[in-house]
Amino acid sequence: MQVIPTLKNGGVEIEALEIAKAIVEAGGRALIAAKPGSLVEDAIKAGIEIKDLPLDTKNPLQIAKNTRLLNELILKEKVDIVHVRSRAPGWSAYKAARALGIPFVTTYHAAYKSRSVFKMFYNSVMARGDRVIAISQFIQDHLIQKYRKYGWFDPAKIRLIQRGIDLDIFDPSTISKERLDRLRKSWGVSPSMRILLLPGRISRTKGQDLLINALSLMKHTNVMAVCIGSTQGHEAFRDNLLHYTTSLGLADRVKLLPPSPDMPSAYQLADVIVCPSLVPEGFGRVMAEAQAMKKPIVASNHGAAPEVIEDRITGWLFPPGNAQALAQALDKVLDLPQDRLKKLGEKQRTRVKLLFSNESMFAKTIAVYQELLEMKK
Questions:
Q1: Which residues have a Cβ under 8 Å from the Cβ of 126 and sit 6 or more positions away?
Q2: What is the pTM (predicted TM-score) of this model?
Q3: Alpha carbon distance 178, 276 (integer Å)
Q4: Do residue 247 and residue 333 come from a single domain?
Q5: What is the pLDDT of residues 186-204, one digit of tens each?
Q6: Residues 177, 132: one domain?
Q7: Do residues 155 and 26 both lie within one domain?
Q8: 103: number of CA atoms within 13 Å, CB side?
């Protein structure tokens, strides 16, 4: 049973759904305990059982109640392994699993901030698994650096399993001209404009303002920045971005759009994918997806980016927060001839197939489950 706050359309939730599908395909029974969301229908179609629990809370009283609810659910459904991917429901699941002697797995998705003793303790549940899955070498190093001084933490529990993507979905050969034409029309972008695509929620940490600044510094002017992502909870920042865009005279060259239901086509339509995150990414799924689509990518050089992108071989890395360096990198990529871009694309997709496929992630994760089940026997 995997435990997450809500089953909505997000990176953590999608990975939980993908792993659950892999378990079903391998002949197992997969449950997801969460508050239902937009992915419920997909889960049910795949044979995954959804258990509706109020796990999308940080309220200490509800977390305590959720421990009892999960305890009852584990016993009722005869759960063999509990796997958590988020901190608040993680505490409920941790206490329930420990009380029942059930193997407990965590996936550590991000380098969580810990500016106080309380926050350090709150985050620590994600390092308390019988096995702790690190989604990148960056996260594995972070885990060891943060928790090695604590007696309860054993680095030998860590398993490095980098995030995977579906190479059948993210395949440029499957994208028709009609799909691209429909998407370009829905975005309202002229065929004469080249597109810089920044996928990700509209948030200060994702660097939309940095991209807009870089756009104002570029020598290329027939370029439009398209930022696609949810603004929920960040409406004030979205409004600030719009004001900033207008102040730079770029109102007709920047679009803030909702998430795309057809991300493969979004990548294919773009000339360059941009990941200017201001905080280190735990993995950076967009970076892998863009390379699978054989698209040039420019990203901030921190977090897991140097693992996912080989600088100047399968993409370009620039100093985080440096708008001038980002502008120069984007101009350089837009100047590349088609034959160079084609060779780049082949290297990118080959690398993703080798290192970041869903099949590899599924096999390694199921191996962790099997390892724990054998130990329990």
A1: 84, 87, 90, 106, 107, 108, 112, 132
A2: 0.93
A3: 30
A4: yes
A5: 999 999 999 999 999 999 9
A6: no
A7: yes
A8: 18
Q: Are residues 290 and 347 in the same domain?
A: yes
241 with 142, same domain?
Answer: no
Give tens-digit pLDDT for 10-26.
788 989 999 999 999 99
Supply the CATH number for residue 368's domain. Answer: 3.40.50.2000
Q: How many domains does the chain have?
A: 2
Question: Same domain for 177 and 203?
Answer: yes
CA dist 49 and 302 (Å) reads: 38
Phi-psi group of 352: left, alpha or beta (phi > 0 → left; psi -120 to 50 → alpha; rest → beta): alpha
Q: How far apart (Å, rounded) are the C-alpha atoms in residues 219 and 221?
A: 6
The span from the CA of 296 to the CA of 301, in Å, is 15
Nearest to 13 by CA among 44, 45, 35: 35
Non-local (6+) Cβ contacts of 279 within 8 A are 205, 303
Stated as kind and residue range, the H or E segment containing 196 is strand 194-199
Tokens of residue 324, six digits: 């001038």
Spatial strand order in the sheet of 316-318: 254-257, 223-228, 194-199, 272-275, 297-300, 316-318
Instruction: For the chain, give the mean pLDDT.
Output: 95
pLDDT, tens digit (0-9, with 9 covering 90-100), for 293-350: 999 999 999 999 999 999 999 999 999 999 999 999 999 999 999 999 999 999 999 9
Strand spans (E) along 45-157:
49-52, 82-84, 104-108, 131-134
> Mind listing the pLDDT tens digit for each residue in 78-133?
999 999 999 999 999 999 999 999 999 999 999 988 888 999 999 999 999 999 99
Percent above pLDDT 70 for the chain:
100
Q: What separation in angstroms does the CA of 344 have from each of 152, 186, 305, 367?
A: 46, 29, 17, 34
**Cα distances (angstroms) measured from residue 296 to each of 11, 59, 254, 316, 356:** 22, 43, 20, 8, 17
187 shares a domain with 158: no
Domain range for 305: 172-355
Radius of gyration of the chain, Cα coordinates, nearest whole angstrom: 21
Q: Which two tokens stand for residue 8?
A: 């909505």
User: Residues with Cβ < 8 Å from 206, sequence gap 6 or more?
Assistant: 198, 200, 229, 276, 277, 278
Domain match, 158 and 253 both:
no
